[in-house]
Write a structure and sequence with these properties.
elongated, single chain, 21% strand, D-Maltodextrin-Binding Protein, domain 2, Arc Repressor Mutant, subunit A, alpha/beta, two-stranded antiparallel sheet
């Protein structure tokens, strides 16, 4: 049979969708056409083939034996078309970015839908680890590193944001307290500690109070876990403002002291001076910087 003798592709698509849903209305919703259009396509296909494909029942459709065989064959044909189309398209370019677990969970992941929409041709692989990776041996294209500005002859460094450390807790935890809390009130709350151990410095520098007992509380190895505990009303955590800005804006967290500790440390975007994929790497870096400065 010549391709010119084949039934209409629209009619075949309508039949295939109807054979899965056994309902013209649901098939129409999937294809974005009217129910009448699907029914007309199927009737035309039956006339063209000279065979009845469906039994029309009061509330549903039932495939006839010829309809069942035809649906199976057509479905395999569509699967081959999908497979062939996927094989001919170039695979998306994969870039690897190394970040800390808290940066990944609290800053990067909430913004990923925007990245995917802006760069559908890029496949971003995320390595979340406290360990400092190397570009070549770990197959990394970009890194976001915390601390003082990295330096080296073979890397390019851009400041993403400086760390502004604030205390955060759920509004319910301090619902009966007068805000901002006085430093003396801190003893009545559980301090949620992380591996950075910044509570003593925060209490002494920002609250101007003795830090005796500031190392007690509940300890987590990741700041993201301390933030999650604060969201759950379990105590007060310290976190970079950039990691909790959405929770603060949404009212899920509050800053009970209304103060912040500005630190010399920051988060930096680091790329090789000669990246493997210059254009895509520059695009990802520009996207990171634009979101940090928005």
């Amino acid at each position: 049979m010549r391709t010119s003798e084949l039934p209409s592709l629209n009619a075949i698509r309508a039949f295939e969708a109807a054979s899965r849903h056994l309902n013209f209305r649901l098939a129409a919703e999937e294809l974005g056409v009217s129910q009448g259009a699907v029914a007309q396509h199927v009737r035309g296909l039956e006339d063209r083939l000279g065979v009845k494909l469906f039994d029309r029942l009061p509330r549903t459709l039932a495939l006839t034996d010829p309809g069942r065989r035809y649906a199976s064959t057509i479905r395999r044909a569509f699967e081959l078309i999908v497979e062939g189309t996927a094989n001919v398209r170039p695979a998306p370019l994969r870039l690897q970015i190394s970040v800390t677990p808290t940066f990944a969970a609290k800053w990067l992941l909430p913004r990923l839908p925007d990245f995917t929409a802006a760069h559908p041709d890029l496949d971003l692989g995320i390595i979340a680890s406290e360990r400092r990776t190397t570009f070549h041996s770990d197959d990394v294209d970009l890194a976001v590193r915390f601390g003082s500005a990295p330096s080296g002859p073979n890397m390019t460094v851009d400041l993403l944001f400086k760390e502004e450390l604030i205390a955060v807790c759920s509004p319910g935890l301090v619902a009966d307290a007068q805000l901002p809390l006085a430093a003396e009130a801190l003893s009545g709350y559980t301090l949620l500690q992380d591996s950075h151990g910044q509570w003593p410095q925060f209490i002494e520098t920002v609250l101007e109070h003795s830090a005796a007992g500031a190392s007690t509380g509940v300890r987590f190895n990741q700041t993201s876990l301390a933030i999650d505990a604060a969201l759950g009303g379990q105590g007060i955590a310290l976190a970079s403002r950039h990691f909790v800005e959405r929770d603060l804006a949404a009212g899920r967290l509050v800053n009970p002291f209304g103060a912040a500790l500005d630190r010399d440390a920051g988060f930096y975007v680091v790329t090789p001076r000669r990246p493997r994929h210059p254009g895509p790497t520059a695009a990802v870096k520009a996207w990171l910087l634009s979101h940090a400065r928005a």
